[in-house]
Amino acid sequence: MSETDRTIGFIGLGIMGKPTAKNLIDAGYDLIVNDIRADPLVELKSYGAESRKTPSAVTADSDVVITFLPEGKHVRQVALGENGIIENAEPGLVYIDMSTIGPSAIREVADELGEKGVETIDAPVSGSEEGARRASMSIMVGGDEATVEAHRELFEVMGENIVRVGETGAGQVAKICNNMITAAEVASLAEALVFAEKAGISQQNLVEAIRGGAAQTWALETRAEAMIEGSFDPGFFASYMYKDLRIASNDGEAYGAPLMLTSTNHELFKALEERGRGDLDFSGVMTLYEELAGIE
Q1: Fewer C-beta neighbours within 10 Å, C or N terminus of the chain?
Q2: What is the b/e burial string over 37-72, where b = at least 16 CB atoms within 10 angstroms of the residue's CB?
């Protein structure tokens, strides 16, 4: 069977999932989709996909099932719950979860599906909605090496930097580490920008002065201009960052790993969430710094 002869089930057509599903259709894959909302299903059907009413019905007609969901509870429900993937899972099915749910959660799901002869790959991503649309995401993969390699062409349709980190769950470890770092970058940048304003210098001049030097980061390159303008349209929701830092904090406790910076950033994003700003881009943490500094 060639790569594109595989029928792909795709569950979760959100801000990242929908453009990723379209890229698979563009590459020639037959796609069967499912989502709890009607609008993205209608859009994907008009784009060339079929749809099914439940994850179990998707699974019945698929060789590979991909999920792209918000949280671990959603992955567990879709994979293991009533009308879930497990109900129609047959030996040889490959399940790929591209959500960010943490290593312990995906390993629990993988163990239960494994009893049905299903191989699980965790493949969380780094990249905004634009990265999903342009198929330029980094994909951090955990799973059996032979199984991952057998599906590499599928991953290459969805992203650019595809790295197998280790066995199942390893991709989740890498993704949580990724978000620990990006949260620290954005929080540090927000802190510096507010400091500059309180010190009486132009935030734009600050960014121009430090760009390309030792303070050059992904956040400086991709978020500074919007943060200065006060534009926080979501590329990655603050709520999702809060969720990911919560996973990091919980797993850090379980592993005995010191997470001093991550713990502080977790509290910052918790405060942002509690103020009703979880629908901002995660760089919206700057609004919290401005509030604390008395800046309108």
Answers
A1: C
A2: eeebbebbeeeebebbebbbbbbbebebbbbbbbbb
Report phi then psi at 252, rounded to 5. -60, -40
* Dihedral angle, C-alpha 220, 161, 266, 36, nearest 10 °: 120
> 278 in helix, strand or coil?
coil
The pLDDT score that the predictor gives to residue 212 is: 93
User: Looking at 18, 22, 53, 175, which residue is catalytic?
Assistant: 175
- The torsion of the CA quartet 266, 267, 270, 275, rounded to 10 degrees, works out to -140
Domains of the chain: which residue ranges?
3-166, 174-293
Please tell me whether residue 142 adopts helix, strand or coil conformation: strand
CATH class of 174-293: mainly alpha
Task: Find the helix or strand (DSSP H, E) in which 158 lies.
Answer: helix 152-158
For 17, residues 6+ apart whose C-beta sits below 8 A from its C-beta are 10, 35, 68, 69, 98, 132
Give pLDDT, residue 128.
80
pLDDT value at position 2?
52
Query: CA gyration radius for the chain?
Result: 20
Does the annotation mark 270 as catalytic?
no
Contact (CB, 8 A) for 129 and 240: no
**Residue 128, C-beta contacts closer than 8 angstroms, at least 6 positions apart:** 235, 236
Q: In which residue ranges of the chain is pLDDT below 70?
A: 1-3
**Assigned token pair, 156:** 């290459």
pTM summary value: 0.91
Tell me if the domain spanning 3-166 has CATH number 3.30.565.10.
no
Find out whether 149 and 126 touch, Cβ atoms under 8 Å.
Answer: no
* 13: its two tokens: 């057509």
pLDDT tens for 156-191 read 999 999 999 999 999 999 999 999 999 999 999 999
